From TrEMBL:
Gene3D superfamilies cross-referenced by the UniProt entry: OmpA-like domain (3.30.1330.60)
Main subcellular location of this protein, as a coarse class: membrane
Signal recorded as keyword: yes
CDD domains: OmpA_C-like (cd07185)
Protein keywords: Cell outer membrane, Membrane, Signal
Record localization: Cell outer membrane
Protein known as: OmpA family protein
Span list, region Disordered: 68-88
Top-rank taxon: Bacteria
One Pfam family, short name: OmpA
Comp. bias intervals (Basic and acidic residues): 71-88
Organism this protein belongs to: Polluticaenibacter yanchengensis
UniProt signal peptide: 1-25
Record-annotated OmpA-like domain positions: 324-439
Length: 439
């Protein structure tokens, strides 16, 4: 028996040696194979890092950049099967970053623009421009963007005029200046609230209107600076500077601006950049305007551009506590989701924190959370989506803000109870809402 075993063992050893000899006889370069294996391993690691980074961007603004296509179908399926636990963990990380964010949008949406109704390459239908503004598409984005360029120029949405004493404006912004090479070139972008949408700058260096208002001049290169100038009929009343490190990156920034009488607050992502109690002088009317100040060389070389999308303009100062406790029903459009999903955007943190404070101060208060959608898409899918969104809100209130789960229920109504038309972007935005009903 031992002899037979030994014979079999020797036989397999001979086969192995024969195959090894054949491999070398075919001139297989073992050194290069090892090198390639190492390279492939590094490439795979880089791919994973890029994918993770793009995932975070997608969470922030609903999928701005398209991820690289996987070469293997099974890997794509595996990505699609990410667990709910992982999604919640990423969401919690985002909300942690926004723990001091207190922006609450106005009660009534007056205008909403994601530029889906405009054709790429055209000037947005409801905008005026003294420079080059056109609709641009970004791969993987659910919406279109308006691209600003053209040296010294001004861009005004005509549906935002005669702004009330209490209003909010928020939008997604990308500033692309990655090819700019020289620090001494002029490069500014502006967010302005002014008394005349057609006013020209008196001084291109100051970029200040001849009328009354406030301008937030953004200088991404090289200072990463936001320079606020408040002025009355062109005369400067206040100047102040702040920095935002995120300007050094081409990643999208969510900008939130709030007016309460003369008080102006502006946030970039989760950071309150300015809170100016007397920042906006008294004037009869105010308009929103964007501006660019790009030197001739960089403009000709197509080196610097500003992109805007998901612009939401709302009026009113929300009194959420009184609405829920006294009226018995609180309606909010400030809890935002990634398109077609139940993933809550982190800029919803201000609203959620306010609602959680009301519920935690009134621990026996029972509420029903009701989700609503617009009419885009399939009815059954909208019903399911509204239910999932209501449940996601309940989960966040429990897990992030310590609200008692036993005193909340969640349900969805889909598109069945519109409060506005579904034929305009603003109407659809008003229909995408969440109700907290006292029970």
């Amino acid at each position: 028996m031992k002899t037979k075993t030994a014979i079999l063992t020797n036989f397999f050893i001979l086969i192995f040696l024969f195959n090894l000899h054949g491999a070398f006889a075919q001139n297989i370069d073992v050194k290069n194979k090892a090198k390639n294996a190492t390279t492939n391993k590094v490439d795979k690691k880089v791919d994973e890092t890029i994918d993770k980074g793009l995932d975070k961007i997608e969470k922030g603004i609903g999928g701005l950049f398209k991820k690289k296509e996987k070469s293997n179908k099974e890997e794509r399926n595996e990505e699609n099967r990410k667990s709910q636990k992982q999604d919640v963990e990423e969401q919690e990380y985002s909300f942690t970053a926004y723990n001091k964010f207190d922006f609450i949008p106005g009660e009534k949406i007056l205008a909403f623009d994601d530029f889906k109704q405009d054709n790429p390459g055209d000037l947005p239908a409801k905008w005026n421009s003294t420079g080059t503004a056109e609709i641009a598409k970004i791969s993987g984005s659910e919406f279109n963007w308006v691209q600003f360029s053209g040296g010294e120029a001004y861009f005004s949405p005509q549906y935002i005029s005669k702004m009330p004493d209490n209003f909010t404006v928020d939008f997604d912004m990308i500033i692309n200046y990655s090819k700019v090479e020289y620090a001494y070139y002029q490069l500014k972008f502006g967010i302005e609230i002014i008394s005349s949408a057609t006013a020209k700058a008196q001084n291109e260096n100051a970029n200040v209107s001849a009328n009354t208002g406030i301008t937030f001049n953004i200088t991404p290169f090289p200072y990463k600076e936001i320079y606020a100038v408040s002025y009355i009929k062109g005369e400067t009343q206040l100047e102040t500077k702040a920095q935002f490190e995120g300007l050094s990156s081409p990643k999208p920034i969510h900008v939130s601006l709030m007016r309460q009488q003369q008080r102006i607050k502006i946030y970039f992502n989760n950071k309150k950049v300015y809170d100016l109690p007397q920042g906006l002088p008294i004037a009869q009317n105010y308009y929103l305007r964007f501006s660019t100040l790009i030197d001739e060389w960089n403009d000709k070389q197509n080196m610097a551009k500003m992109y805007i999308s998901n612009l939401r303009y709302a009026a009113g100062k929300p009194d959420m506590r009184n609405k829920l406790l006294t009226d018995g029903k609180l309606v909010t459009r400030g809890i935002l989701f990634d398109p077609g999903s139940a993933v809550i955007k982190p800029e919803s943190a201000g609203v959620l924190k306010e609602i959680a404070g009301i519920l935690n101060d009134n621990k026996t208060l029972r509420v029903k959370i009701v989700g609503h959608t617009d009419s885009d898409g399939d009815n059954a899918k909208n019903q399911l989506l509204s239910e999932q969104r209501a449940m996601a809100i309940k989960s966040i209130l429990v897990e992030q803000y310590g609200v008692n789960e036993d005193y909340m229920t969640a349900e969805g109504k889909g598109e069945t109870q519109p409060v506005d038309v579904n034929t305009s972007a603003a109407g659809k935005a008003n229909n995408r809402r969440v109700e907290f009903i006292k029970i």
